Amino acid sequence: MVIEKENHILAGSAGRKIPVVMATQHPDNASVPYWHKTEFISTTDEVEECYRSFCDMGCDEYMWDWEGKFVDEAVMDRLFHQYYDYFKINHLGLNKFLTFRIPNIWEEPGFRLARAFMAIITGTDAAGELGFSPAPVFEVILPMTDNAEKLIHIQEQYYKTVRLTCQVFSTRLSGPIEINIIPLIEGTGSLIKSKRILLEYIDRFEKRFNHRVEYIRPFIARSDPALNSGMVPAVIAAKGAISEYYKFQNETGVSVYPIIGAGSLQFRGGLSPDAIENFMNEYAGVRTVTVQSAFRYDFPREASTAAIKLLKRDISLKSPRIFSDNEMNDILEFDEIFRKPYCSTIEKLAFTINDISRHVPSHRERIQHTGLFGYSRGIKDSNIRLPRAISFTAAFYSLGIPPELIGTGRGIHDADKRGMLSKLESIYPNIKNDLKRAGCFLNKENLRMLAAADETWKDIITDVGILEDYIGSSFVPTCTDHFIHRNHVSNILHMWREGREFRREILSAGVIRKSLG
Q1: Residue 370: its pLDDT value, please?
Q2: What's the pLDDT at 134?
Q3: Is pTM, for the whole model, over 0.85?
Q4: Helix (H, G, I), strand (E, B), or coil: what is residue 94?
Q5: Residue 440's pLDDT is what?
Q6: Does 13 score more than 80 pLDDT?
């Protein structure tokens, strides 16, 4: 019998285990989950999904997402009672981890945050009654973190909620009166300069709570930076952020355990079961990765679980690359070089992409992103509103235009003129490989047809020509699946133009490329 080795990382004075693999509810799967009947996973199904992510797939952590979606607020009660035997051995908060991604109260109504806090408090009571770990949930993720004060504010609000609950109900809380905050940082500019957020945070925390921060798990977004700035800026910003976090650790003595949120397609991170080594090498230094729905359900289950074992075995062995000040300046320059052509094209295509994205199947019970609840994403310094990253990516792929290519060719041309290509390849070693993987799904006939109707698409034709020269080969289908995918997206373009419904074609194409978006 072969025993799989896992390299557990311990943090803090209590020696807590740092999870390596976090399953999330990101709805990027095109296939039916192995344990379910349809692609759609309802709120009531997510409790079973959480259990199966732990038990079947070997994940360490599960993100319970309160951001812009409906939520089963009795999650801990259900887990404990429906799967008592499992959690009696694998305690939440000790061996397995449930981590709430809370609403950003500066974007969503505050009462949703209050409900998340009450779920933590009541879940703590439920665990205590059963003799389980006294703090089943003790960390929350704050999306769109852009300053330290917001982190402190959330911690203060939680503390007030605990105190008020104890006063009103005459109870004594057995769990944490403080919670750890995981800052989820989403913009390329914010990521590159995020060390200062952490420095300000630990200073404010010590003054407010009279003790030091023991460790931080800064969360690097990969999808939304790509949506807002393009693939290359998203990659180099993530790598710059990893470097900055370890500089912060060296300067302050506060341990960092970076998380990266990546989808399966290159545009959203390139973390898929068939590209684990490339991913770990590209983002060396991260200590937790997200495996989203496509990773778990669009590949054979055996491949997904084997990839999770590999991540748990090797990710802690990858040492971060620390960039010099000059290299960080290069990263800032590359961000500008590649972001400008990408954004100029996306702004002009926003209407088309929003129209196509309406047909992308929704596989979770999301709250609408307009009006009172939720929020959409938009290009920085622009009034253009875009769909969420999964639908955005799915829309472009469904037209046969991988968004990885948009603006990248013109960026390569500009970087070459400045004599910076070797610097780019040093910072982003997998760039040619990522472009080749994405380029196999390019439908050149669709692109020519789109360009004949709207000149904006001609800029992408320019990108393609430059990139083919750069990588030294053409973007063409290389296997049967690529040809089948090309046929599906050809159908989608014609059906869209004729005003016909094409959701099933979008789904079929997603199954072929092993991710909806």
Answers
A1: 33
A2: 85
A3: yes
A4: coil
A5: 98
A6: no
How far is it, in rounded angstroms, from Cα 364 to Cα 394? 15
- Considering only 108-117, 132-141, 290-299, 466-475, which range has the smallest mean pLDDT? 108-117
Cα(399)–Cα(188) distance, rounded to whole angstroms? 26
Provide the total of helices (H) and of strands (E) in the chain, helices listed first: 21, 14
3-class state of residue 12 by DSSP: coil
Q: Count the neighbouring beta carbons within 10 Å of the beta carbon of residue 417.
A: 10
Q: Classify residue 328 by burial, with Cβ atoms within 10 Å: 0-12, 13-18, 19+.
A: middle
Nearest to 347 by CA among 388, 312, 378, 303: 378
Pairing label, strands 16-18, 9-11: antiparallel
DSSP per-residue letters across 277-300: HHHHHHTBTB-EEEE-HHHHHSS-
Can you tell me which residue has the tokens 């999330």?
Answer: 24
Q: What share of the chain is helix, strand, coil (3-state, %, to 5)?
A: 55, 10, 35
pLDDT(375) > 70: no
Joined together, the tokens standing for residue 143 give 């999306």
What's the token pair of residue 304? 């997904």
Residue 373, pLDDT score: 26
Whether 420 contacts 333, CB under 8 Å: yes
Do residues 142 and 154 make contact, with C-beta atoms less than 8 angstroms apart? yes
The length of the chain in residues reads: 517
Average pLDDT, the chain: 93
